[in-house]
Design a protein that fits this description.
The protein is mainly α. 70% of the residues lie in helices and 0% in strands. One of its GO terms (cellular component) is plasma membrane.
Length: 321
């Protein structure tokens, strides 16, 4: 019974639920403001994402006459539910241990694909030609950035597994514990290519410039989410903010989970600061300084550079281990 209560608290309040939504919206507000400043604009207020969500919840949900009703309505819920569960799997060193079971890293890999799958289902179910184009682009993007991510996760799992006398460790809590005892993988030269590959994976997975091809406003008018409105569109926006928390949190857990001490509040603030630093490096600066690339360019980029970097780390790990 206590385990069930703890699970509900984790899903609804911390580290998922309310906490993850607030942090995600805060990060999105900071990102938009910082991009505006880099481009010499005033930009929206930090609480603009909250205003947008409140406005959307007060609007009517309009469903196209030719849309597949069930799939159209369920698609936003699929991505949102996936991210609500995923955020509870990520440990916060010195604050939250996560769920201790072998294979949670693989579960997280599958959950990370749900927002993209939700966009594809929603785009195809809307019966819009722009949604269909967005569906195909999202599928290509997903196929391209999933490969380097998989190699990075296998590399980290092998690194920790070989160092602890095993083969591979697909438990995030074990990976974090290893780094707390032996130092962060960020400072291991064999892991630097994998870290760079993960940083390259982040903007593609988040669907931001230069990899916002599936939702390119000037080309396909928001693509998969063109026909969405009201609460359904708000769920897609919330999913995006939660995905940012999950992806950045995964990067921290894999490479630099080190806390500042025993104080839980201080460690939580330090964790949020790491969120901000990582977001600015991997999302904000990239978004402010680049233009959108074509889908074929994005596909070739991920198959060449991030995948090659991740493979270098994998080879170095095997040779050293």
């Amino acid at each position: 019974m206590n385990d069930l209560v703890q699970l509900i608290i984790n899903l609804l309040f911390f580290p998922g639920g309310l906490f993850a939504i607030v942090v995600g919206l805060f990060l999105m507000g900071i990102d938009r403001k910082f991009v505006a400043r880099l481009q010499r604009r005033v930009g929206p207020p930090l609480y603009q994402p909250v205003i947008d969500l409140v406005k959307l919840t007060r609007k009517e949900i309009v469903v196209p006459e030719t849309a597949h009703l069930q799939a159209f309505r369920l698609a936003p819920l699929l991505g949102f539910a996936g991210m609500m569960v995923a955020v509870t799997l990520i440990p916060i060193a010195g604050v939250y241990q996560g769920f201790k079971f072998s294979g949670d890293l693989l579960v997280l890999l599958y959950l990370l694909s749900l927002p993209a799958i939700a966009l594809m289902i929603g785009g195809s179910a809307s019966s819009s030609p722009f949604g269909a184009v967005g569906f195909s682009r999202e599928m290509v993007m997903m196929m391209s950035y999933e490969l380097p991510l998989l190699v990075v996760l296998v590399t980290v799992a092998l690194k920790v597994g070989l160092a602890t006398g095993g083969i591979a460790t697909f438990s995030l809590s074990e990976i974090v514990r290893y780094q707390l005892e032996n130092g962060a993988l960020l400072f291991d030269y064999t892991m630097l290519p994998a870290l760079l590959a993960f940083l390259a994976f982040i903007p593609g997975n988040m669907g931001v410039v230069p990899f916002d091809i599936p939702e390119a406003e000037t080309e396909i008018v928001e693509g998969p989410i063109l026909e969405y409105s009201g609460t359904s569109l708000a769920l897609f926006k919330l999913t995006s903010s939660l995905k940012m928390v999950v992806v950045l949190g995964l990067a921290i857990a894999l490479f630099f989970p080190t806390p500042l001490g025993e104080n839980m509040l201080l460690n939580l603030l330090w964790y949020i600061l790491k969120y901000l630093i990582l977001m600015v490096i991997s999302i904000t600066v990239v978004r402010a300084s680049t233009g959108r690339v074509r889908i074929d360019q994005a596909f070739k980029f991920y198959l060449k550079y991030p995948t090659a970097l991740a493979l270098i780390s994998l080879v170095l790990t095997l040779l050293k281990g």
